């Protein structure tokens, strides 16, 4: 268990900047997740921590040791990959103990460590089995046990659940949280799946183009996204975003207008964001309970998706004054029993306390919630 620090780490492959001046300070025992779209630099970052890739610039510290130039085996890390790569001809016991046997640990010590690790991943008594006799989830747990026996200071996991089916992935999410609690070890986890990041992590580092967009607890990223990228990436389904302009009395775009008071130095071109769960059909019980609803927006129901616990209603809004105006899509999450039909005309209100504003050009957040006085925070990235 140890603190993990990345200090201004950059990795270039020729002209490609895979990781761009990335700094992270991860507390001892913390579970942090690197999340972002494919190609954003997550794997390169975790491989630099593991020592599998050299950083072009910057340094990595584990505890009080600068490990930047140390070989992987001397860093005190253990890594679990997406492709589990167990030796098919070896028993589970031999697979888990492989690294310890290479390092000439005593037999009694090997058995003690393997037994403990197998208990932790709930594979006790399965040491004699061959990998082919295990399910996908069990094989992944063998890979995790193989990492546990090394007593690492830091666990590194690169998309370890990506090859599992959806049910097993959800199950393993809980297992990994339990494991983290039990081992009390620093974990750096990589995924492209924002739901995985949201559910497991103490903090998530949202990455795009090799740079950190926000490093914060999951709910902070959800409630107070620092910029348009985080707003669009975190949360499922994603936030509705409308490009428009700041007017004297609020926000205006072709299809969506919301009034609010603001200082005069708010940027002219702004983007308004509202999550599907913060938009309501006018007249519904939920809308009636809003203390600060926006003015109603006219829309027509385009597509309805029943999800069981909620219903997703895709709406088209357009500026009725302009005959040839393009329709803009607005997604609203409503209770599953809501009586609504395709092609029906409806009205939508937003919870103004949950409406976000961003500067369109830079993407930087201006405010989260329209009930407070809005003056742009120029320090935000
Ligand atoms: P992620 O894990 O987020 O999908 P990666 O860290 O694998 O992203 O890749 C980041 C960027 O670096 C991508 O543009 C990728 O094409 C590039 N890259 C990764 N590894 C190499 C390599 N060995 N050679 C050249 N480019 C690479």
Automatic annotation (TrEMBL):
PANTHER family in alphabetical order: MALTODEXTRIN IMPORT ATP-BINDING PROTEIN MSMX, OSMOPROTECTIVE COMPOUNDS UPTAKE ATP-BINDING PROTEIN GGTA
> Which terms are listed as keywords in the entry?
ATP-binding, Nucleotide-binding, Transport
The subunit field of the Swiss-Prot or TrEMBL record says: The complex is composed of two ATP-binding proteins (XacJ and XacK), two transmembrane proteins (XacH and XacI) and a solute-binding protein (XacG).
PROSITE patterns, per this entry?
ABC_TRANSPORTER_1, ABC_TRANSPORTER_2
- Reaction(s) catalysed by this chain's protein: D-xylose(out) + ATP + H2O = D-xylose(in) + ADP + phosphate + H(+); L-arabinose(out) + ATP + H2O = L-arabinose(in) + ADP + phosphate + H(+)
Which top-level group of life is the source organism from? Archaea
Recorded GO cellular component terms are: ATP-binding cassette (ABC) transporter complex, substrate-binding subunit-containing
**Protein name, please?**
ABC-type D-xylose/L-arabinose transporter
Q: How does it sit in the membrane?
A: Peripheral membrane protein
Q: Check the record and name the InterPro entries matching this protein.
A: AAA+_ATPase, ABC_transporter-like_ATP-bd, ABC_transporter-like_CS, ABC_transpr_MalK/UgpC-like, Mo/tungstate-bd_C_term_dom, NA-bd_OB-fold, OB_MalK-like, P-loop_NTPase
């Amino acid at each position: 268990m140890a603190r993990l620090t990345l200090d201004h780490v950059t990795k270039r492959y020729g002209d490609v900047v895979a990781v761009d001046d990335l700094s992270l300070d991860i507390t001892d025992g913390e579970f942090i997740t690197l999340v972002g779209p494919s190609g954003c630099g997550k794997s390169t970052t975790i491989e630099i921590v593991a020592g599998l890739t050299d950083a072009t610039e910057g340094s990595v510290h584990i505890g009080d040791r600068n490990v930047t130039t140390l070989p992987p085996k001397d860093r005190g890390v253990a890594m679990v990959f997406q492709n589990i790569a167990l030796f098919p001809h070896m028993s589970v016991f031999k697979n888990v103990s492989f690294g310890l046997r290479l390092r000439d640990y005593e037999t009694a010590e090997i058995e003690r460590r393997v037994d403990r690790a197998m208990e932790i991943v709930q594979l006790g008594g399965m040491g004699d089995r061959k990998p082919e006799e295990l399910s996908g989830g069990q094989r992944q747990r063998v890979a995790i046990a193989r990492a546990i026996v090394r007593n690492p200071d830091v666990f590194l996991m690169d998309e370890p659940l990506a090859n599992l089916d959806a049910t097993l992935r959800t199950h393993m999410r809980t297992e990994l949280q339990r494991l983290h609690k039990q081992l009390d070890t620093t974990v750096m986890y990589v995924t492209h799946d924002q739901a995985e990041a949201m559910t497991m992590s103490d903090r998530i580092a949202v990455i795009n183009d090799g740079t950190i967009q926000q490093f914060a607890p999951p709910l902070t990223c959800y409630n107070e996204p620092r910029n348009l990228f985080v707003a669009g990436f975190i949360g499922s389904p994603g936030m509705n975003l409308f490009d428009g302009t700041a007017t004297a009395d609020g926000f205006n775009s072709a299809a969506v207008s919301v009034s609010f008071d603001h200082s005069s130095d708010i940027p002219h071109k702004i983007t308004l964001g509202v999550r599907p769960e913060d938009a309501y059909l006018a007249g519904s019980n939920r809308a009636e309970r809003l203390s600060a609803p926006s003015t109603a927006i006219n829309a027509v129901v385009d597509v309805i998706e029943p999800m069981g616990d909620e219903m997703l209603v895709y709406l088209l809004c357009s500026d009725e004054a302009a005959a040839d105006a393009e329709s803009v899509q607005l997604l609203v999450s409503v209770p599953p029993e809501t009586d609504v039909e395709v092609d029906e005309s409806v009205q939508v209100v937003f919870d103004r306390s949950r409406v976000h504003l961003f500067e369109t050009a830079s993407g930087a957040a201006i405010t989260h919630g329209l009930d407070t006085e809005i003056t742009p925070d120029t320090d935000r990235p």
